[in-house]
Amino acid sequence: MLDRVLAAMYPAAHLGLSREAFATFDAALGKTPWARGHQRRYALMRGVDILACAQRYDLSGTLGEQALRICGIGALWSDPAHGDLLHARVLVERLVDDARREGADLVMVCASPASTRPMLDGFEVVPTHDVELKVAESSRYGAPMTLVRGGEDRDLAAIAAMGQARACRYRFHLERDADLVKYAITKKRLLAGLEASGVRQLLFVIAEEGITAAAYAVISIVNGNWTIEECGDRDASGARVGAILQALIAREPVERRPVIRGWLPPGFVPPQATIVSRHPAAEILLACPLTVTGDRLALLSDDVLYWRSDVL
């Protein structure tokens, strides 16, 4: 059944991978510690026909001072051969009903505007924005005095702690422990490793004090364009993240300067960087409260901390 589901959704959700690589990616990601306990796939069937499918994720988060159990729904797909988006809507509604019975406080759906936004009643948009950054460089194109190394599993606890310290300033955020951080990074690593050679690269780098990670960045590189998947810094100003970016750019001083984009938390801009442009993200996050007090979340952009690598 899983093979049939992957074969059906591959043309629309291949992520740039070959059919074989797509199956390998799905199997490998499902073996991570976080996925084994928090991720399940569902399909809506009519006889032997697969009408729609989705991934369900068990997440934790915070809204104000209220701890939340969150049902995340992603990788949503419906078969165009069986009509419009009705089947995807039916599948989401059933997953929402299951989540409500199991005591979830909130449902979140991640999908493209065309496949999701018109069909889900009771959901509201969680505001997220893409920013483009320009990073200041030395006129001599030298690197700053910052030690940058590759990230390792031993850094995950420090990374999770950095995230928790920053997240408390925002009204809505996910609770990201070390396993969830590893899952998010592994997902991007698998994409880079399984895509055709030279198409995609992933940088997971650390700036440390002593032997402890003090800042980090996870960056995807495609066609020379950089996307900050997530980053963090024990320094509230983000100065170490800025130094990491400067150091990475300085490694190739004769190359064209990269375009750097990402979802940065409101109010977090490293002092070495300036925002060139800012606009609503193409990926849409939708949320529907189940037990949260009030009928609406009414989230503003400044309320939300959500990294691109958290898109389900």
Q: Can you lay out the helices and strands and say which pair or pack?
A:
Layout: H1 2-13, H2 19-30, H3 33-38, E1 39-46, E2 49-63, E3 66-78, H4 86-101, E4 106-111, H5 113-116, E5 124-126, E6 129-135, E7 148-150, H6 156-167, E8 172-174, H7 178-194, E9 200-209, E10 212-222, E11 225-233, H8 239-250, E12 259-262, E13 273-280, E14 284-289, E15 304-305
Helix pairs in contact: 2-7, 6-7
Tag the structure with descriptive keywords.
single chain, 312 residues, alpha+beta, Aminopeptidase, 2 domains, 8-stranded mixed beta sheet, 7-stranded mixed beta sheet, 8 helices, globular
Level-2 CATH architecture of the largest domain: 3-Layer(aba) Sandwich
> How many strands in all?
15
Summing up helix and strand content along with how strands pair, one would put the structural category as alpha+beta
Bulk shape: globular
Give Rg in angstroms.
20 Å
Number of discrete helical segments: 8
Biggest sheet statistics: 8 strands, mixed
Task: Estimate the mean pLDDT confidence.
Answer: 90
Summarize the structure.
The chain has about 300 residues and is an alpha+beta fold. It is about 30% helix and about 35% strand.
Explain this structure.
With 312 residues, this protein is α+β, with helices and mostly antiparallel strands. It has 8 helices and 15 strands. The strands form 2 sheets. Strands 1, 2, 3, 4, 5, 8, 14 and 15 form an 8-stranded mixed sheet that branches. The chain has a 7-stranded mixed sheet with strand order 7-9-10-11-12-6-13, sandwiched between helices. The chain is globular, with a radius of gyration of 20 Å.
